[in-house]
Design brief:
about 325 residues, alpha+beta, disordered N terminus, transmembrane, transmembrane helix, Protein LOW PSII ACCUMULATION 1, chloroplastic, membrane
Length: about 325
């Protein structure tokens, strides 16, 4: 990862600027930013037009991302704030009781006529101290879980703001695919990406039926070569393969930074190839070192069409 090339894609309106000989991959669904998401693969040649270059690398501020993550955290765990409020209330109540018991204990020790009250006062003080300790521990554990969840959601929001190229004219953030596709991000050298491409071939139809799309990111800066058989008899199969592998990450430095941070948090070697699978709602479902389990995706994920769509959109199975 440390040796990843630092480059960016440039979007142009000229149809002649395309790495795959004027082939345009299109999709059939509506993205959240208004861009069309087509399902067929078409090839066309057009007359040259005026070349215009657009470079956009804007990203939300850390404050807005943090606010979004906090809101999502509240939605995912709506009763956490209530629990933490009661923990604080019980800590305050126990602390106040302990303070009162301490003053009574001092007064009883100073007055020999009240010596008989000391054991009872000590008992109450002990209960207050135990209560404060227990609820302080519960609050600490809840707060630590909250901070960990917010940190994870912040990382997911940072991932959601990374850019993807849909075709030669469409650049959208990764978040545009929420509710549309289950993205599988591959990060590794070009040879690793090519091998993942080969291993996914038997599962192409099953993956597409489950809304899986692949985002291959070559960390060595070498574009992987995807060989598609140009055969009329296999035209439908080839088009489905191209749909599965149509997306391309933009702004390599941002992708490299995000992936390196995740590897560091997971204690994974920077040179190790990894995969990351996302749910339909954009949350991270699973990750690992090495090749993604294409067969497990097909077996465990519900289809995105038919009677299994809608109700089971968030039930992405176990991977």
């Amino acid at each position: 990862m440390a040796t990843a090339a630092q480059f960016s894609y440039i979007t142009v309106s000229s149809p002649n600027f395309h790495p795959s000989a004027n082939k345009r991959f299109a999709f059939s669904r509506q993205l959240k930013d208004g861009a069309k998401f087509y399902t067929d693969v078409t090839s066309s040649r057009r007359k040259p037009k005026l070349l215009s270059i657009v470079c956009s690398n804007s990203s939300p501020s850390s404050d807005s991302i943090s606010s979004t993550a906090k809101i999502r955290s509240e939605v995912l765990t709506p009763f956490r704030s209530v629990r933490m409020f009661f923990y604080v209330a019980f800590i305050a109540s126990g602390g106040l009781g302990g303070l009162i018991a301490s003053t009574r204990l001092i007064a009883a020790l100073a007055n020999s006529s009240r010596a008989a009250e000391v054991p009872e006062i000590l008992k109450g003080l002990g209960i207050d101290l135990v209560a404060v300790s227990v609820f302080a521990f519960l609050y600490y554990r809840e707060n630590r879980a909250k901070n960990a969840q917010v940190a994870r959601l912040v990382r997911e929001e940072n991932l959601a703001n990374l850019k993807l190229r849909v075709d030669e004219k469409k650049i959208v953030p990764l978040s545009a695919f929420r509710g549309i596709a289950r993205l599988v991000i591959l990060a590794g050298p070009s040879a690793f990406i090519s091998e993942c491409f080969r291993l996914s071939e038997p599962f192409t139809d099953g993956l597409l039926e489950r809304g899986v799309l692949v985002v291959p990111f070559a960390t060595d800066g070498i574009s992987p070569s995807f060989e598609f058989e140009e055969n009329e008899e296999l035209e439908e199969k080839v088009s489905r393969r191209k749909r599965l592998w149509q997306l391309a990450p933009l702004y390599a430095t941002e992708w490299t930074k995000w992936i390196d941070e995740q590897k560091k948090l997971a204690n994974v070697s920077p040179e190790s190839p990894v995969y990351l699978s996302l749910r339909l709602d954009g949350r991270v479902r699973g990750s690992g070192v090495g090749y993604p389990p294409w067969n497990a995706f097909v077996v465990q994920l519900p289809p995105v069409k038919g009677i299994w769509s809608g109700l089971l959109d968030g039930m992405d199975g176990r991977v």
